[in-house]
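Session log. Operator J.P. requested a structure for one protein chain; no other inputs attached. Running the standard single-chain path with token output.
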Amino acid sequence: MTNIWGFLMQTIEISIVALILLLLKKIFQDKLSPRWQYGVWSVLFLSLIIPVGFFPFALFPSLHVLLEAVKTIIEQSLHSSYIDIYLPIKNITSFPLVTGIPHSVTDFLFVFYVLGVLYHLIRYMHQYIQLKKIIFIYGQKPSDELFQKIQQIETKYHFPSCQALVLEGIPSAFVFGLFKPVFVLPKQDTLDEKIILHELLHLQYKDSLQCVIWSCLRCIHWCNPFLQYVFDQIHNDMESLCDQRVLEKLDGEQRRDYGRILLNMTNEKYPYAFGTTSLSNGAKNIKKRIEAIVRFKKYPQGMMIVSLCICLLLAPLSIGYFHSYTLIGNPYEHESFSYQLSLASARMMEYPTIAGAIDTYAKGIVSNDEQFLLSVLPQQDYHDFRSVLSQRPDSVVSTLTYYLYDVIHLEKINDHEYHAKLCFYNQNENIDVENNRVIAHYNIIPIQIKKERGWKVRQNGQVLTGDATHLRTFMNSEIYDIPIYKIISLPCQSGKVTVIVRNGYQVFGNDIMNTPSLHAFELRPQARFNSGYQYLEVIYQNHQSLHHQDEIEYISMNLKNLNNQDEDVHFEKHDNFSDYGLYYQSSSNEETFFFAKVENHTLDKEYRFQHISYYQEANSIRLPETYALQIDINGTTELIKINMEDGEWYES
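Structure written below.
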């Protein structure tokens, strides 16, 4: 926590977790053992030490959005040094850190809060040091009779031995210390062994160390009265658990005696100090403990499993796993609080996948949705977001039936950056009857995708417009001669092979709207790429001598997808060349075969064929990175491996 808003978000969310736990404890008060009643606080402990906002989830996302909107409104005119007005509140630690000189009211409030934390920690440490001095200066060795009684109890219940001291003037026994705890007893003529048993159980389970941890966490939330009450309940549950452990080792009459001992302590002053445990914890709490003793029963071993399962089910409360952030509706009144809420919800969106970020940006462009675009806006553009958004491409239309856009030329720059081009088609096609072509208009937006809090998208160049000729329809995908991705030229023994590559990723079908029906009218962001294609146009030129060319009767080529460069290649056999005629081509998603008969020993200048690899409904679409091309000339074959990492970017 480095600012007052981070603390508010942390303490409010923890308070909600604590309230839920208190309600559950109330419901199951008589149904589950004190072990569960205390053990369930482990969920709160996790939420206390895990920074709220560290994960992209929230217990109540609307609460985070509300606080973010309030922060933005208040901080607009303050120029705080601890907070960036447009960056979402996010804690990287669960304890406060002052990172600079305060400049604003909210900065000084945070400094005041940090001083309060330090005051309470110093006060606790002072108490601890003072009590330690008193114990070791004025503490005396117990009498032989008392020492033997302690040893007998340790032997009977298999407790490790510990240092014991007698201190005059204390009302009841307690355990003091963190790593080498000391058993401190009052100076009395007789001391019931059940009191000794209670404190030795505290020693065995290191309850004094737990008390110190809870007290330090109490200091961090010193100004939250509700959590102060909760920490008191935690301490009471610890004592109730120790009572349960004592009663499990006693018989019927001894249990009643133990209750009478507690009853005699109801009027004594509560001697709690930092780093200690004590049998007494105040009259009101002792009365509740006596009532629990009356209801005492040994819980079956199976209840431990039930308690553990309940804690595991509640554990997501500690990281707010129930809901990720969602976009709140965007009204038109820019000065309204609702508008600030919509902007806050957009800034808090985190897209864990490249596909989700690109999809949101694309749908923001098509639908002219400011909130979609703001949710993927890089942090560097937040301060001038209105100017940046006003410069977005306009008049971009997509009228395709099955998908809104293609993501073409997706190129990895490094682990945190990709480049790509968004291609939108206007399917108000023109039909070139003379040349038997279908032409569609396109808009292409170059984009940069960078990893910040999730993936962010921004325009990375001038918008390209033009007309594209329809090349092929495959699996409902309309493939046009959009700008080329790469051109790869490879020499071979008989000539030269040129491969022209076009590729694209698509959001197909119902995922366009993220709804069960294509008849929905509202675009929803953050879909996934569920289809993709790689379109290859292979051009072969024979450069052999005229003598060799005169002997050529046919040329055939097989192109096949490979998983990697070293994969063994097995092509489908084609030997009925007499049935193929002058030209023949057959294709599948994995392999394409091309055949050309050479008549009168006259070669064409170029031999061309097309191959398309198409993937649909794949969780992680991976287009082939390697192909194998086999060229067969009159039965003599040669094999070429084509790596998609080769070649150059083609700038149209």
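Operator note: The longest strand covers residues 417-432.
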